Amino acid sequence: MLRYSRLLSCILLVCAGWVSVTYAQAKPNVVLLMSEELDSKGAVIPLSGEVVELLRYLEQHTRLKFEVRRYPWKRAVENAAMGEGLIFGISKTRERLRSFKFSAPIFTDQALLVTLCRAKFNFNVINDLKGKTIGIVRGTSYGEEFDRLSNVLFKVEDDTSNNLGRFKKLSMRRMDAFLLYSSSANIGRLETYFNQQYMAEFGDKQADSKLFCILPKPVSSIDIHIAMRPDGDASLLQKIDKAILQGHQDGELARIYSPR
């Protein structure tokens, strides 16, 4: 009886080990590089609720487990090109198409111009930026036309992803506007949020005034993807593509990124 009990215990241990290995194989860790944003104290701002929900959806439908690593955007792109992992939040450019394979589009981001309300200007076409200084996050693309005309039609001011620093530069008139990516369809709500978040930092306590304005017309609308090196594991993008397409078909991605 004792020998039988030991044999049964061994069988159970082997089975448990097999299940554990099988589960680990079913949900392997996949490094996913993302941009970091910093608060006024230099700490990394947590991922937005939309991004957290999106990653949860993709993990559920791909049976992958993402290991998120956050860097300044330029470094994230460089590290992805070196093969550290996949990268989230990237758009297609001619140059990047030589260095990466892209997933299906996940959502569309708008590149919005943030200005001082007292120094607003009209923007309808790219030529309206002539002679102006526009802040950009180093290493970020804002569309082929904008990228091509940077430091030709207008000057660019390289920034980090520290939003407080960007608003401070704007308040000091070191630039006429800076570009901010957002998938929000409610520009008014976004504008209110930034004024509540940053206006007090610059000594403007008037509750009935706005210091910062967002121009209504975006510079560009860009499809956002996950990407990887061309020599990476193609099956990862295949699984991700399948989940993205399913998310578009069943409306889950639209729900995640709907106005709140």
| SS element count, helices | 9
Output mean pLDDT. Answer: 86
Total strand count, please? Answer: 10
Q: What distance separates the N and C termini?
A: 64 Å
Strand content: 15-25%
Q: Which residue ranges are poorly predicted, with pLDDT under 50 across at least 5 consecutive positions?
A: 1-26
Major sheet: 10 strands, mixed
> What integer value in Å does the Rg equal?
23 Å
- Summarize the amount of helix as a percent range: 25-40%
Instruction: Name the helix and strand elements from N-terminus to C-terminus, one letter apiece.
Output: HEHEHEHEEEHEHEHEEHH
Choose one word for the global shape.
globular
Structural category: alpha/beta
